[in-house]
Specification:
This protein is mainly beta. It is 11% helix and 35% strand. The protein has an eight-stranded mixed sheet. A three-stranded antiparallel sheet has the order 1-2-5, with no helix packed on it. The chain binds zinc ion (ZN) (2 copies). One zinc ion binds next to loops.
Length: 151
């Protein structure tokens, strides 16, 4: 694990964030929304405590209605519109796009969710914590991250 704080931000540099403590987990999401928003086969979700996350710069939001009926607030840079993080209905955590970290070397995903909608060619490591749908309870993903980063 690196030393904290760790920082990240959007492509144009107008929005910067600081993560003051280690995240709770990092995993890949293969849902169709992540494929559309990232333009890639999956996006990397980094779960952080809201109290550990500080942002500077102007953002714009898009309220996305998930299949569950929940409204997920998606936050983007107001200038370059890079996708930075989501606010789930539970305000205690944020789901940050791990690819926006300045240094992503330490943020190795410990699992995969929504593998039921993954690309046919996407290979899932069976030794990771994998879910065919969303993880209603993220505890196994948190535990896998803790195990991978025991001091
Ligand atoms: Zn920007
Ligand atoms: Zn997703």
């Amino acid at each position: 694990m690196p030393r904290f704080p760790q920082e990240g931000g959007c492509q144009c540099g107008a929005v910067r964030y600081r993560l003051n403590a280690a995240p709770l987990s990092v995993y890949n999401c293969h849902c169709k929304d992540c494929q559309r928003f990232s333009g890639a086969g999956w996006s990397m979700s980094m779960i952080v405590r809201s109290s550990d996350f500080e942002v500077s710069g102007a953002t714009v939001r898009y309220d996305r209605r998930a299949d569950s009926g929940n409204v997920i607030v998606m936050n983007f840079c107001a200038h370059c519109h890079g996708w930075l993080w989501n606010d789930p209905p539970d305000g205690s955590i944020k789901v940050v796009r791990a690819g926006t970290l300045d240094d992503i070397d330490w943020a190795r995903p410990v699992g995969n969710i929504w593998t039921s909608s993954k690309a046919a060619w996407a290979e899932i490591d069976p030794s990771l914590v994998n879910f065919d749908k969303g993880a209603v309870d993220r505890t196994p993903l948190f535990e896998a991250w803790s195990r991978a980063h025991q001091p």
